[in-house]
Every structure is written in structure tokens, then in C-alpha cells.
Specification:
Length: about 450
């Protein structure tokens, strides 16, 4: 029988060995996890500099926001909850949701469409917030379902093509508040606007987590963007739901290369060219930094956008540009230039420091003098349409942020807060909303996702 002291000593030795072994195992696991994380994050890869721009709110702007009922933390989660069909549509967001009325005869409605540009904005939000898993899932989903065989992003998809209707929430599906041009198309067209914005989003993802494989993907997409030249753009010629002429251009009243498809309510215009708002110049600048062979093309794009300004009196921008036909300033018989596409053109110029003062001054005057922005303005008289352009406000807010203009930021944010839901019992609480027909209230993905990116 061994001595008691010997047994005690042996137990201590065993415990020490076990403790050391446990610590060693934990350390090995930690090292493996750490190395895996670093490998996946691209830390061991040589990162190329995408020369990303960064525009921040001033202290005064932050103060303006903090003094209102705006809640940064809630808007994004609530709008994605509403528009992801809670959560059967995941990872997609629908275009809009109309709140139910006060009686059963006025049910809630939701969009039948998924707009690709909205999905790219959602991807950007995930990247900005550091939500890598959600961002990667969105990239995979866009590549699989919203990209054509040539690698360009499609303008939209019907929601039931992405998620079977029987798997979604029982909310009335509707085309009522859709972009009317979508309803005229059997197959979704290419969206250069979504494609160039996707290029921006991928570079943002690359800056945080990318590797050589993603850089190759960015190179490939850059080639498509710069090589696209004249891709087909489809638009309803007039949103007033009546047959209208084909677009008027600076060179001819009847473009020879334009085809028409007549319907009972509206004319569908198919033109060869590229929409001015689709030229995301900052994304192209960054691509040209990564791949200098595109520098010349990038400079050409800048020239096309800048020369697309309608006039000094109405410093909005043409709808599209064609090498053969020049600029198409508007669609429809009324001769109205659309505001939101023009604002995207202004934002793209401002991001690279080339927005002229005429456009910025004109936008500022609309906010200061009128307090409202409208969907279109007459090319001759400058008179606005009668429909408010909700998507326009966050774009002007971003312009003010780029320029460091506290006064314009304050006036624009005040205008936006007119349509910010603060009622505790509202489905739209903490989201921006639009007033639509018959006194209905709708939450759209677009302005809420833009606001998330700007000040979320």
C-alpha cells in the first residue's frame, strides 16, 4: 500500500497535466479560429487600394438629426422586416408595402416586384454595418437570380419567381403602385444603373473582406460596365397611362433607331443608349484606379454626363445618351424632365468633385423656396408636376453632406421628417412613408435604404 503523501502528490501531478492539456487545446482552437478568420478576411492577401471616397456628416448635421424623433437604430430593421415579408422573402426586400386601412375592406398590400437596385442598396448597408454573412448571402443571391447570362444585372424580378407565393405571408399582392414601365415588359431588361451600383458595392465589400478572387470578379464586371456602350434602355414613354410619342432628342424629333411597342394604355419605348443616371462615376473612378486600362473610358463617361445638362435655366440632366442620336432629354408628350434620375447624375458628379454650381443652386432653391421636390419639371417653363418625389430628398441630403452644407441639410431633413412615422401603433413606425392614392400610406424600400446609407 503506497504512502498517502505519494498518492496526494500523484493526484496533483495528474491535475497539472490535465490543466496544461486543456489550456493547450483551447490555445490551439483559438489559433485555428484566428487564422481562419484572418484568411477569410483577406488579411494575408495583398489588398489593392480602391481609393474609396468617404463623406461624413458635420457636427451641426448630427445635432440636427439628434434633435428630432428620428431613430437611427430602428429604421433599417423595421423596413427590412416589413419588406422581407417577415421573413419569407429573405434575403430580398420588396419594393413597397401599403399599410392596411381602418376597416377590413381596406387590407394591407405589398409589391409584386423585387427591384434590383434596392437589393444592391441593401447589400451596401450590410457591408457598411459589418454584416459579412448577410452581405455574402446577398451577393450570391444577386449573382444567381438577378443577373443575366452576360453578367449584367436585371432591372427587377417578380417576387413569385424568387419565392413561391404559397410560402409567403398572406398579404394582398398588387401591381398598383409599381413603375408602370415594369408592367409592360414580359422579361426584365438589363439595368445599367443597378450594374454600376453593384460594382460600387463589390468594391466596398472588397475593401473590408475581399481577396484576389473577388478582385477578379470586380475586374470582370468593370470590363462589362466600361464595355457596355449602348445597352438597351426600356421606359414607359409617359407615366400618365396614355399613348404618347417616342422620345424627342436634340438631333431629331423621330429617332430612326427607336422601336415602339404599342399597348392600350401606354407606349413602351426601346432605345439604344445608356441612361445618364446609370453612370456611377465614383464607382468607375475607383475601377479605373484598380485597372488603369479603363482610365480613358472613365474620362469619356464624365464628359457624357456633364454635357447632358439640359440648360442653365433648368440644370437637370437628359434621360439617356446614344452615340448615334445624342441626348434624349425626356420621354412623353408633356416635355417633362424627371428629377430623380437628374439628382443621381448630380450625386455622381459631386462625389468626384465635378458638380457645377448651377445644378446645386437650382436644387437648393427648390428646397428653400418651395419646400417640396416634384417628380418632373417642364423642359421649357420649369413648372413642376403635381407629384412629390420622395426618393429625391435623401439624394439632396447626400449632396448637402458632400458639400458640407449645413443649411441645405437642415432644410432637406426637415422636409423629409414630414413623412416619418412616429405613431407607436403604426406598422411603419420609425420608417419614412409616402402618401399614395385614396389616402393610403406606403413604405418604400428606396428612400429608407438610401437614408440608412446616408445617416443610418
Amino acid at each position: 500500500m503506497p504512502a498517502l503523501t505519494s498518492v496526494k502528490y500523484s493526484n496533483k501531478k495528474v491535475k497539472k497535466i490535465v490543466t496544461i492539456s486543456v489550456i493547450a487545446v483551447v490555445a490551439v482552437i483559438a489559433i485555428v479560429v484566428g487564422v481562419k478568420f484572418l484568411l477569410e478576411s483577406g488579411a494575408f492577401s495583398k489588398k489593392e487600394d480602391t481609393a474609396a471616397n468617404s463623406f461624413s456628416m458635420t457636427d451641426e448635421m448630427n445635432q440636427v438629426v439628434s434633435e428630432t424623433e428620428f431613430h437611427k437604430g430602428y429604421m433599417f430593421s423595421r423596413v427590412t422586416k416589413i419588406l422581407s415579408d417577415d421573413p419569407e422573402m429573405n434575403p430580398w426586400v420588396l419594393s413597397w408595402y401599403v399599410l392596411p386601412g381602418t376597416t377590413r375592406s381596406v387590407p394591407a398590400m405589398q409589391s409584386a416586384y423585387v427591384d434590383t437596385f434596392d437589393q444592391v442598396l441593401l447589400l451596401e448597408s450590410y457591408v457598411r454595418e459589418g454584416k459579412r454573412s448577410a452581405a455574402k448571402k446577398m451577393i450570391d443571391a444577386i449573382d444567381a437570380s438577378l443577373t443575366d447570362e452576360s453578367g449584367y444585372l436585371l432591372k427587377f424580378k417578380r417576387a413569385d419567381e424568387l419565392v413561391p407565393e404559397d410560402k409567403r405571408a398572406e398579404v394582398e399582392k398588387s401591381d398598383l403602385y409599381e413603375d408602370q414601365s415594369n408592367l409592360l415588359l414580359t422579361d426584365p431588361p438589363i439595368s445599367m444603373e443597378a450594374t454600376t451600383r453593384y460594382l460600387r458595392a463589390l468594391m466596398n465589400y472588397y475593401d473590408k473582406w475581399g481577396d484576389g478572387k473577388l478582385l477578379d470578379k470586380i475586374h470582370d464586371l468593370s470590363g462589362k460596365v466600361f464595355g457596355a456602350g449602348a445597352k438597351s434602355s426600356y421606359r414607359a414613354a409617359d407615366r400618365a397611362a396614355r399613348p404618347t410619342p417616342i422620345p424627342v432628342t436634340e438631333r431629331t424629333l423621330v429617332p430612326e433607331e427607336t422601336e415602339e411597342e404599342q399597348t392600350e394604355d401606354m407606349t413602351l419605348v426601346q432605345s439604344t443608349g445608356v441612361e445618364i443616371c446609370a453612370m456611377d462615376l465614383d464607382a468607375m473612378r475607383r475601377a479605373a484606379v484598380l485597372f488603369p486600362e479603363y482610365q480613358g473610358k472613365y474620362e469619356e463617361m464624365i464628359k457624357i454626363v456633364k454635357e447632358g445638362k439640359i440648360s442653365k435655366e433648368l440644370p437637370l440632366y437628359a434621360w439617356m445618351y446614344s452615340e448615334d442620336l445624342g441626348y434624349t432629354y425626356y420621354t412623353g408628350s408633356a416635355g417633362n424632365a424627371e428629377l430623380v434620375p437628374s439628382l443621381y447624375a448630380m450625386v455622381h458628379l459631386a462625389e468626384i468633385g465635378q458638380l457645377d454650381e448651377d445644378g446645386y443652386a437650382w436644387v437648393s432653391q427648390q428646397i428653400y423656396n418651395e419646400g417640396f421636390l416634384y417628380t418632373s419639371y417642364n423642359i421649357m417653363s420649369g413648372a413642376p408636376s403635381d407629384q412629390e418625389a420622395s426618393e429625391a430628398y435623401p439624394l439632396v441630403l447626400y449632396l448637402a453632406m458632400i458639400k458640407g452644407d449645413n443649411d441645405l441639410f437642415t432644410a432637406t431633413f426637415t422636409a423629409m421628417m414630414r413623412n416619418y412615422a412616429t405613431l407607436d401603433t403604426s406598422v411603419a413606425l420609425y420608417d419614412f412613408f409616402r402618401n399614395v392614392d385614396d389616402s393610403r400610406i406606403a413604405v418604400y424600400a428606396r428612400e429608407n435604404l438610401l437614408m440608412e446609407l446616408i445617416i443610418g
